[in-house]
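pasting for ref
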Amino acid sequence: MTEQIKVEIEKLSFGGDGIARHEGLVIFVPYSAPGDHLLVRLTEKKKNFARAEIIEIIKPGPSRTPPPCPVFGRCGGCQWQHISYEEQLHQKQLIVADQLKRVLSDPARLLPIVPSPKPFRYRNRIQLKFDGQKLGFYAQNSHEIVDINDCPITEEAIAQKIPVMKADLLSKKSKAITKIEVIRTSANLIEVVHEDSPFEGVGFSQVNSQQNENLVSSLQDWMKDISFETFYDFYAGAGNFTFPMMETFPQARFVAVELNEKSVKIAQDRVRKQNLSPQKIKFYLSDVELYLKRNPLPPSSVVLLDPPRSGCSENTVRMLAEQQVRRIFYISCNPAALARDLDRMRQVGSWIPLRVQPF
């Protein structure tokens, strides 16, 4: 496809591409910035939309900025490093507003976004690939590895490990490895976990430690005026929210449900080390949907949901929406899945969102 057209980028999409319009067609353009005037080549054309690649930046948008990473645009890890952080925040606020417009009766219930304390050097874990020669991340839409010696979005201690690991793998003439997790643990140790390692990693965890602190403190603040007897933490991981909430609300009982065996073991070890009563806190290794089928929730309960990117299953949402609990808090990394689940909860149980806080 060789058709070339001139476009102006209006805004950014949830997937990271810029959005332009041309003769009634919505056009998605990777690595574009709001306000860009571009010459683009169409790479895919459907009935209602098209995809295109940049041929020439005729006039850059006001937020376009030089990306700090030397492999940005080739590496598939980042999409927005060429846009100022202030504009990224603005666009993310717009994306959340757009995704939730069907379920938010009052736009004022969407609060202003909380910036990351660090736009760079914030990730406490990464997953690298090694092909026998190159160590790095997959290129955009490819299984070709982009070789790196640093990653500007990772914490300094992890980034320093990258060239050391590469030299070690090359000196040992290691074969290709499709997954190498590099993690800073809660004990501030850097652990390297290969796909064939007996250690399974830590399951899911929030990758931005400082922003995670903001999440926890916001939840504590939102809960402080609610009277409840039991706190249910669904998709609890290793207790990222369970343990801080227990310290803040010592009068309550805590039930955490998680399907990742490693995470549950870490949490249960912590319960034992802190000599906490099983009447006070309990971690269940279970699917959330299965747990809800077997355990009705008391009306004096508060529920926290922190599901994976795909959101909750339809049955989970339905069973939760039918409960008479005091309040449900939902933490999401995918506003599209959040909007779908909130809409289902409204239809099944007349639940409505009181407020939404992007981070």
